[in-house]
Hints:
Chain A is mainly beta. Helices cover about 10% and strands about 45% of the residues of chain A. In chain A, strand 5 (about 120-125) and strand 6 (about 135) form a beta hairpin.
Amino acid sequence: MKTRLLPYLALIWVALLGCSFFSNLASATPRAQPTGSASSPVQSTAGWLLPDPAVGLASLTSYHQELTVSFHGKNAGTDYQSVNSYVRDVWVEQSADFLVMTTSETGQEPGEMLMGKVGQAGYLRPGAGAICQVSWSETKPDAGTGRVPEPASLLPPIEQATDVGTETANGVSAHHYTISEKGSTTNTAGDFWLAEPGGYVVRYVLAVSGKEGEQHFEYNLSQVNLLGEVVYPEGCSAVLTDFPVMDGARNLHRLPNSVDYTVSTETSAISQFYKDQLVAQGWTFVNAHDKDPKNVTLIFTNKGQGKATSIVLNLRDKDVWVSAILRPWQPSSGVTPTP
Amino acid sequence: MEFRVVSCKYSFRGSTDVGATANAMSPGSFWNFVGSYDIVGTLEMHEDGTLSGQGTTNLFMDATGNNPLVKCGVETPWQGTTAVELQADPTAWSTEGVLDIQAHLEPMTINFTGITCKSFGVEVYGASPAITIASFDLDFAPLPGDGGSTSLEFQIPGQPGEFKMDLIVSPQEAGS
């Protein structure tokens, strides 16, 4: 029974103590693996029992993760504690995941941030109660929001541990391992469960106590392959993936209530395209505002969906910028007029 | 080191559902109003570091009668067009990477001919004069440098009702 955690834990302590939680996340290098600088030599994890705590997750179709990393002790001689929490839902086939990170730290205001992506849409809610910002990129969905961190990668790798046997953890059959090591300055104790089959971490609890205090990791993976449809966090909405777009569209952006793109086509052809496509989808063409041929507005309503859309065709040189906005719409209830 | 790539040209659209406001102001009305009040333009970064652009404001609203016994229609919809000047705070863009956009809308005349209703063989026509909306400004909440959407509640000078403008700002690739 032996663990080689100290180089990783030292790095994580440095990363978590006295630093901004979100600036750590922004570094996009949450893995505890040292990165080869002179002050943190690379330590090979080849042959370790759990060299990468994120192992096996790619083989799942969906899952829910919760990780809490806390520290209680002293910082520069004064009492200090911090709790960083990560809650993440992942839908692999839909290329969707949402992560909510919260932090509390002595002397600091609590913080919260949501990051996520669904297909080509990226989501960012920079604080509790803030607006959920949505961006779209056909090639880089996280271009505007940052890559969603993998909580399991924040767990220290483990070289060796004692196999206790097979148990059920978080509803999954798993091998239970224990860790217990007393060093000259640090004591380490914990348990973790590796799915059988699959090898992914189902549960992981680790406490490292030293002269300055105790660091505690608790990680749970649940609802494995059971999440079903993508659930959007409060205030975040799906983008309009089914709103028709012309062939040859460039610079396409799909947002929750709008679609825009550029196309090299006559405005009359674009108008006809939407009259055909949207009417086929159950929309009613109301009218076209084409007083200015360089700026044409098309209005459609959909009583069944309770929506109206306003599509602007803005002629620029040889191209047309097409911008569609969808809004709630209900016809007025109506009264019988006096003849 | 990570470099952030920010566009120097944006397409801009602010859009207001004027029909929704008209319907809300006339609950139980015979009429269903459907319309759109749009600001469309481009915003570009210039060599001196300023961000500005021009565009067009268009108002369009139609109405249909809401009773099977009476056929009503608008002869020509409410329509108006005018120019808009757009600018973004260069300091906010250069230091925070955000688009803090203001729009200055020129006065706009809205033309409308009238409404015709037919019921049991009787046709009734009602006319309305053109109205002019005074110049006014819109100051939008900051958006990320790579674009996005937001909304703004505002009032049109001299007109009743509260309006909500949805704003889309889309970065444009070179050549778009």
